Amino acid sequence: MDILSRPAEEFENDQSIEAMWAMKAFEHAEVHFNLLCSVDPQSLQLSPQDELVYKVFREQFHDLKIDVLNEDDLKSSKAKEKWRQFCEQFKNIIEDYSFGTLLRLDASDDYSEKNSILVTKIQFLAIEIARNKEGINNNLRKRFKSSSKKKELN
């Protein structure tokens, strides 16, 4: 049995468990960014429920600016309550919906300590699905492929 799938109550601030969670979140972020830089984001499907997640997200967060997120839009008391209601709708729909996942604050840039925030998996999916569908992630391929080619030439 994977230790990360066991109930959180079994652990008391175990640093090795926290390190495993951080590593898993980082690996997920790395795979996600590589996908964004390799394929057309508008054709990318992040979950079997992308259409539902996007529909509900935009119904409930129709004015949320997702190209550059403000941390308060995710973490303020008011935002947390609204997000909690959104997230709970997917409890039995999205597997591991509440897992900690890294999200880029600025969609035009890569994951970094400054540009990443820890959110739930369903928040990540909602925002990244919207970024893909709304064309916000479209320029990543050009921007990061060309910079990696320049590095190879030097």
Describe the structure.
- The structure is a single chain.
- By secondary structure, this protein is mainly alpha-helical.
- The protein has a single domain (16-153), classed as yst0336 like fold (Orthogonal Bundle), CATH 1.10.3560.10.
- The protein contains 6 helices and 2 strands.
- It has helices at residues 15-38, 50-60, 72-75, 77-88, 121-133, 140-153; strands at 100-104, 116-120.
- It is globular and about 40 Å long.
- Residues 17-140 form the Polysaccharide biosynthesis domain.
- It holds the Pfam family PBDC1.
Describe the secondary structure blueprint for this structure:
Blueprint: H1 15-38, H2 50-60, H3 72-75, H4 77-88, E1 100-104, E2 116-120, H5 121-133, H6 140-153
Antiparallel strand pairs: 1-2
User: What is the correct CATH architecture?
Assistant: Orthogonal Bundle
**If you compute it from the alpha carbons, what radius of gyration comes out, rounded to the nearest whole angstrom?**
16 Å
Q: Output the strand order for the largest sheet.
A: 1-2
What's the structural domain tally? Answer: 1
